Amino acid sequence: MVRQQLLQRASALTTRNALQPSLRNTAPRRFASGEMPKLTGAADNAFNRERMAVKQHAAGSSDLWRKLSLYVAVPSLIIAAINAKNLWDEHWEHWEHLPPLEDRIEYDYMNIRTKKFFWGDGDKTLFWNDKVNYHHKDE
Questions:
Q1: What was the pLDDT predicted at 95?
Q2: Contact 117, 126 (CB under 8 A)
Q3: Which of 52, 53, 80, 84 to pair with 110, CA 20 to 30 A apart?
Q4: Is the separation of the CB atoms in 62 and 32 below 8 Å?
Q5: How far apart are CA 12 and CA 17, in angstroms?
Q6: CB distance 70 to 90 below 8 Å
Q7: What was the pLDDT predicted at 29?
Q8: What's the distance, CA 22 to chain centroid?
Q9: Interatomic CA distance for residues 13 and 131, integer angstroms
């Protein structure tokens, strides 16, 4: 008799589980996988179809942006860095051919000083660079 009751309970549980899917079965098993499950029965409605379309679009667009980042952006940055380095070297090669800073002409519009700066010796600007800036002090 006990065995018969156990069999009845087991068959009732399996029937109920077949009719009512558990939470574990409805959770997506393959998160972000390429395949989308086919909708059947009550799950085949406009909301779920739109949701699947959004997921498919997101998968495709994220793959596109990943490829763009790896195969376009990174090589472009490398090429731009090489170009910037070449331009930098050309610029300093040009400076080697110029006369020394002390011998260059200082025009009226350059290094106008109406009052002293409150830092340093009062003659140099905040972004003063001794390699490229020079000021002929009034004699």
A1: 78
A2: yes
A3: 84
A4: no
A5: 9
A6: no
A7: 52
A8: 40
A9: 86
Calpha distance 76→88 (Å, rounded): 18
Query: pTM for the whole thing?
Result: 0.44
| pLDDT averaged per 10 residues, the chain (length 139) | 74 60 52 63 82 89 91 96 95 81 76 81 80 70
User: Cα–Cα distances in Å, from 64 out to 30, 34, 59, 73?
Assistant: 20, 14, 9, 12
Please tell me what DSSP assigns to residue 19: H
pLDDT at position 89 is: 92
Q: Return the DSSP state at 110.
A: S
> Which pair of structure tokens corresponds to residue 33?
């996988």
Q: What is the pLDDT of residue 124?
A: 82
Q: What are phi and psi of 6, to 5 degrees?
A: -65, -40
Residue type, 49: R
Q: Characterise 130 by phi-psi region: left (phi > 0), alpha (psi -120 to 50), beta (else).
A: alpha
Q: How far apart are CA 37 and CA 56, in angstroms?
A: 11
Asked if residues 134 and 110 have their Cβ atoms less than 8 Å apart, the reply is no
Residue labelled with tokens 């110029």: 98
C-alpha 49/C-alpha 38 separation (Å) is 10
